[in-house]
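Possible regression after last week's pipeline update?

I re-ran a chain I had predicted before the update to compare outputs. Posting the input and the new output here so someone can diff against the archived version. Not blocking, just want to make sure nothing changed silently.
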Amino acid sequence: MGWWITLGIFVLLAILPLGVSAKYSEAGPHVRLILGPFRITLLPRKKKEKKPNPKAEAKKAEKEAQKQAQKQAKKKAAKEAKEKTASEKVTKPLIEEKGGSITDFLPLVKVLGQFLNGFRKKLRVNVLELKLTMAADDPCDLAVNYGKAWAALGNLMPQLERIFKIKKRNLEIACDFTASQTLILARLDLTITLGRILSLLAVTGFRALKVFLNIKKKRKGGAQL
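New output (post-update):
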């Protein structure tokens, strides 16, 4: 029975969605961390109200004065050391470090590229929202810009759909002839399950190990794997 419970826990953890939800609106940026069914607000942070404490303020002022005094003393010591070094014309030898073989480095770059590509494919765009309310002084300019905005969005969406799997989208462009500035409302929810992350790390780790063993064997004079 205990094995079944353990297995069930591992399965639940494997399908647990992890990600971030970012939104920009009239209230400003809003970022939340996604942990399964939970949402943890990262931005904006809640401000804690601090009660005035005369003793603490006095202590803080004293510490600040000590810091300023230490800072001035360090500046003076650094200036004196610099002048002394310049007068003695002391020169320190540069330590040069040679690079490694580029033929050994390129396979590592390939593994990194495969990891990033695999990570991109496993990401899910749960929500993609964009509402653009355009404004302009001249109605003719506004109409032209309105058409350009839809054309740009039409060209952008196929590119995004080739990169990500988008589950829900809500795109809207509107005109407001009375508005003084263009407004935007945007939201993006990105998630990936823990199971996908672990599987990707396992595959990438195997590929990286193979490359490292190949480099080690080649440096010892053996044939490549």
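Follow-up from reviewer: compared with the archived run. The mean pLDDT is 81. Marking as no regression found.
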